[in-house]
Write a structure and sequence with these properties.
Layout: E1 19-27, E2 33-43, E3 46-50, E4 52-56, H1 67-72, E5 78-81, H2 82-87, H3 91-97, H4 100-104, E6 110-113, H5 116-124, E7 152-154, E8 159-162, E9 169-172, H6 174-184, E10 188-190, H7 202-229, E11 237-242, H8 248-259, E12 265-268, H9 277-287, E13 294-297, H10 302-310, E14 315-318, H11 320-325, E15 329-332, E16 335-338, H12 358-362, H13 365-373, H14 378-404, H15 407-418
Length: 430
């Protein structure tokens, strides 16, 4: 397929191997249809019932957990990172192993992101994108975090970047990202995009959005060419990524531009402040094709989950459940607490009474507190199991609530308890 004759709006014949079926629509208390919905994503390695939380396995592993543990806690799919796997062990290694799922011994559906987020975050020093405050809306076009060295440089063809591992220089372009992700072999992958920050000027946001649009066309062309050349492989779905920061006109334009292209679904990415999450997801859901799934990149807090789903997100991912677990933080219906506190030394109750996860069924807070204080790695595993289970189960309950009409009652109950701000009632024992 030559680039000259390529029409990015024409679908590929093999796209029928991937599918999304819309289920129940969320209705308001007054009975009107809203943007939220349930659905089913069909992949070569199984279905994903949506809304769904996708566990993050950045380097082909959900940190501290085995694939069996990830499956047993209820996760339907995992997401790995193209940037990290490209650097180590190399995408060719995963291709030779039979793809991401076989390499990590995960039986279910898999995602990879394009590497664009890591190029930006590691390149500019901005580690956190959601709720990254905009200090100066007319800020510089080449934003770099204070005290950080720029490790990535963007041009119209792609990005030069330095490895965070050894400083070696590398090149990512839409074509390279597609080749890397095809070798990694996930069921769902994302087009290569430029992720801006809220410190960038509006002028740069406009320029970047056009660059991402042109990169999206190149990603589709290369994706279809690779699909043809690797005919013996399972079809890999390609999602376009919606940028535009917090500007309504830019977000809607991005959705209209990419929504007209032959993508299998869409990722809603980019920098935004937490209080604008629902509004921005809503803009995108109103513009994007109804019959294609929407993945929101990087959320896991209960209020964000309800907001995202209510405004049309189908799937989302975040590293937070395992990241905070490594610092002994655990989720409960009454908020997040930290096991390092001395009051847990003689607390012989589970992390959460009534929780069905492996950790809560078999271990006490006192024991996990001991592991943490002793710097035993098992503490990471046990808290990670619980935190991932808590998040996955919460989203499962939201899906069921949409189906039975109790979404808003569940939202009021869950958020009312979680953000009450009171001490952990269970932790007062012992």
């Amino acid at each position: 397929m030559s680039e000259k004759n390529f029409n990015p709006s024409n679908p590929h014949s093999r796209q029928a191997e991937f599918g999304f079926e819309v289920g129940t629509r969320l209705t308001s208390p007054e009975g009107s249809e809203m943007l939220g919905r349930t659905g089913v994503i069909n992949t070569p390695h199984g279905q994903i019932k949506t809304p769904a939380f996708i566990a993050v396995g950045t380097k082909a592993t959900v940190k501290a957990l085995t694939p069996v543990q990830v499956a047993e806690l209820g996760a339907q799919a995992v997401l790995a990172n193209a940037y990290h796997l490209y650097l180590q062990p190399g995408a060719d290694i995963l291709d030779e192993a039979g793809g991401l799922g076989k390499f990590m011994s995960w039986q279910g559906p898999t995602f990879t992101d394009s590497g664009g987020f890591q190029v930006m975050s590691l390149g500019s020093g901005f580690k956190k994108v959601i709720d990254m405050k905009s200090v100066d809306q007319s800020g510089p076009d080449d934003a770099v975090a204070p005290g950080k060295e720029r490790l990535a440089n963007v041009d119209d063809d792609g990005v030069w970047f330095k490895s965070h591992l050894d400083g070696s220089k590398h090149r990512f372009s839409p074509e390279i990202s597609m080749n890397v992700q095809h070798q990694i072999g996930a069921d769902i992958m994302f087009a290569f995009d430029e992720l801006t920050t809220l410190q960038n000027s509006r002028g740069y946001q406009v320029e970047s959005l056009e660059r991402t649009r042109l990169w999206a066309q190149r990603c589709i062309a290369e994706h279809f060419a690779l699909t043809d050349s690797r005919a013996g492989k399972d079809y890999q779905a390609l999602f376009g990524v919606i940028q535009g920061a917090q500007y309504e006109d830019l977000r809607r334009k991005a959705c209209q531009d990419l929504g007209a292209m032959a993508f299998d679904g869409f990722g809603i990415g980019g920098a935004l402040e937490k209080e604008n999450l629902g509004t921005i997801v809503g803009w995108c859901s109103e513009e994007l094709p109804e019959n294609k799934p929407r993945h929101l990149l990087g959320i896991s807090e209960p209020d964000d989950i309800f907001t995202a789903i209510e405004n049309g997100a189908d799937t989302f991912d975040c590293v937070s459940p395992t990241r905070v677990a490594r610092n002994s933080a655990f989720y409960t219906p009454h908020g997040r607490f930290n096991l390092s506190g001395a009051r847990y030394k003689r607390d012989f109750t589970p992390l959460v009474d009534g929780c069905s996860c492996y950790t809560c069924q078999n271990f006490t807070r006192a024991y996990i507190h001991h592991l943490h204080k002793s710097k035993e790695l098992l503490s990471h595993t046990l808290i990670s199991i619980h935190n991932e289970h808590f998040t996955v189960s919460l989203v499962d309950s939201v899906r069921e609530a949409i189906e039975d009409g109790s979404f808003f009652a569940l939202k009021e109950k869950v958020l009312g308890e979680y953000y009450k701000g009171e001490p952990d009632p269970q932790g007062l024992r012992g």
